[in-house]
Design goal:
It contains 21 helices and 2 strands. The protein is mostly helical. A hairpin with a 5-residue loop joins β1 and β2.
Length: 453
């Protein structure tokens, strides 16, 4: 259900990237006059594509905080459900005015902004330590499945039924998912009446908790933690390249590589298909290296994350110099696809360093990581005003440089170990002592680390 939830998160987010090509496409009427449904220039389109992220950045922190207080499952479901409902209203808003479209997209972003932080609140209650990489990777693969299906489908729908159908179809799918999620998924295993006793006991013994923990967040320690800043820097870097291509790739393929709309949708989806497939592989390998004691958690996160960033830097630079359409798509596909290994690094690292604070850490980090979604489309809109290969080359070079920055910061500052400020003192956990869940020597609930060791 989390996989399908993230499917909706990204299908609702990217459909406009393809639909906007049809919305602004010039065509002849019966009298031979050239017309456009929406006569927006590149700067207007950049504003429309980035408007979602103005709202998205506002609710990252509060989404993680509320999710930890009232249940990540509830906030996650409402966030996606409301985004789907607003997507159904998008055609009406666009026809009313540019300002109304911007307002609807901003509000969509506000509701969708809670999703990534809240899923960490769900994992903190459901995911045993040595299954975290796989569970998170499978769920996050929904992002790319949504992108893979939404991009070509949006192109076909726009061609055959008009651009409005793009929003009606994916909005309806999101609404159906919302009702299923609210019925099926519970806040924690102890609240699921269909769970077996064996599974309930296993999850609770691995996590060392029997319900929603009362958590006090050590704000000073969080904001002075280099391990946390390493995660935030990597998240920012990965999102810069990802959002640049997510919002601009259909336009690049049409304007520079001269593909028509239906091919643009399919080719734009290829890189995300690669990433979706590789996420399953990277998540499995990340857990396997730890289970077999070949690598420590810190080594897994560092090697996977930094190796991916270095490769992405190289292939982004190559994309800027390749004029051939086929090889350009190949380089972009490799660059985006290898990002799957980075997601098995920084994206689950919050759960390693501070599992009970993971939703808040994700919220704070994703606040900064949303900045690329706002800034990148606007910068790209200004840089590619003449739609030349040379202008797009600058766009790719900027992404490559930011990947390299994230690689360096993460290599020197990352950690896969439970941080001192994230440990729970024995005196605050008397019930855990009675249940045999506390590490007597260290005085901390730290069974996850003991298990890994």
């Amino acid at each position: 259900m989390a996989f399908l939830g993230f499917f909706n998160v990204y299908s609702l987010r990217v459909n406009l990237s393809v639909a906007i090509v049809a919305m602004t496409e010039k065509h002849e009427d019966d009298q031979g006059n050239i017309t456009q449904d929406f006569p927006w220039d590149n700067k207007d389109k950049g504003l429309v594509l980035s408007s979602f992220f103005y709202g998205y950045i506002m609710t990252q922190f509060i989404g993680g905080y509320i999710g930890g207080k009232i249940g990540g499952n509830l906030v996650f479901g409402i966030g996606i459900g409301m985004t789907a409902f607003l997507t159904l209203l998008t055609p009406l808003a666009a026809k009313h005015s540019l300002g109304m479209l911007l307002a609807v997209r901003i509000i969509e972003g506000i509701f969708e902004g809670v999703t990534f932080p809240c899923i960490h609140a769900v994992w903190s209650r459901w995911a045993p330590p040595l299954e975290r990489s796989r569970m998170a990777s499978i769920a996050f693969a929904g992002n790319y499945a949504g992108t893979v299906i939404a991009m070509p489908s949006s192109g076909l729908l726009a061609q055959k039924y008009g651009w409005e159908s793009v929003f009606y179809v994916f909005g309806s799918i999101g609404v159906v998912w919302f009702f299923l999620w609210m019925i099926i998924v519970k806040e924690g295993p102890e609240k699921d009446k269909y769970i077996s006793q064996d599974e309930l006991n296993f999850i609770q013994s691995q996590l060392g908790t029997t319900g929603r923990p009362v958590v006090k967040h050590p704000w000073k320690a969080i904001f002075t933690s280099t391990a946390f800043y390493a995660i935030a820097a990597s998240h920012f870097s990965e999102n810069w390249g990802f959002y640049t291509l997510l919002t601009q790739l259909p336009t690049y393929l049409k304007d520079v590589m001269d593909f028509n709309l239906d091919k643009t949708g399919f080719l734009s989806a290829v890189p995300y298909l690669a990433m979706g497939i590789l996420l399953g592989v990277s998540g499995y390998l990340a857990d396997w290296f730890q289970v077999k004691k070949i690598l420590t958690t810190t080594q897994v996160r560092k090697y996977f994350n930094c190796g991916a960033f270095l490769a992405q830097t190289v292939f982004m630079v190559l994309t800027g110099y390749i004029d051939n359409a086929t090889w350009s798509v190949v380089c972009i596909t490799i660059s985006v696809g290898l990002g799957a290994f980075a997601w098995s690094g920084f994206a689950v690292n919050h759960l390693d360093i501070a599992p009970q604070h993971a939703s808040v850490l994700m919220g704070i980090g994703n606040t900064f990581a949303t900045i690329p979604g706002i800034v990148s489309p606007i910068i790209t809109g200004h840089l590619v005003s003449n739609e030349t290969v040379e202008e797009w080359r600058i766009v790719f070079f900027i992404s490559a440089g930011i990947y390299l920055f994230g690689c360096v910061v993460y290599w020197f500052w990352c950690s896969g170990e439970l941080q001192e400020w994230a440990k729970v003192p024995t005196e605050d956990s008397e019930m855990s002592v009675e249940n045999g869940k506390t590490n007597g020597e260290k005085g901390y609930i730290n069974e996850a680390v003991d298990l890994k060791e």
